[in-house]
Amino acid sequence: MFLIRKVYRFANLFLRWGIFLLLLCFHTGTFCPSQCHCSDNTGVMVVHCSSRNLEGIPNDIPMETVLLKLDANKISQIPNNVFRHLDYLQELDLSKNAIEKIEIASFTGITEGLRLLDLSNNHINNIPEGALAKLRAKIRLANNPWNCDCAFQDVLQELKLDPETVNEIICQTSVEEEYAGKPLIQVLDAGVNFCNILHKTTDVAMFITMFGWFTMVITYVVYYVRHNQEDARRHLEYLKSLPSTQIITKDFDTVSTVL
Length: 259
Fold this sequence. Notes:
alpha/beta; 2 domains; two-stranded parallel ribbon; 5 helices
């Protein structure tokens, strides 16, 4: 009897430890990407995937992730809906990658809860309109090769930029060459409106086109008038060169025909 109780207690203890280890494995191993390290020591799931030579975003990130670090990798684009299942995500670090392309629905599913999005130090030169519009997060866009134009200006008006890094948003290229290499905030503070520049450029192009058509019409009219004047002059000189008797005879024949 004593032996049975001892075996029972041992089995019960073994079962409890097994369940504990299974739960621990559930949180930190089974659903953690193999290239990353997951920790949940304080009840907050943190997934560290920094400097792992990742070329894409892992698709098995735990649903309860609050902080996701994907910085210092080789990620080149952010696909649509890649973070859709991360309902608890508050901080997303994608800095120091090779990101060139952001899709229109790249951040679908995390727009409400996200508090910080770091896209600094990448290869981004433009962002699709609406891709970041619904985000409430503070956004870092520093040190990217931005093309400063009307579209980029419109996108920035929808965002809550990190004030500490806003001065590091530099126009690598611009619709106006004089603004290339300058901080965007400095250019906008000077009163520059890239959308007005676009409208002026369009107006000038339309004016040049209309002027070209007008010149062609005037040239044709002048040519037509001159050509007809020349024909009329030659016809008049021909009539003057005819003998008067021929003219009288022609007039008489005409009258006879009528009679």
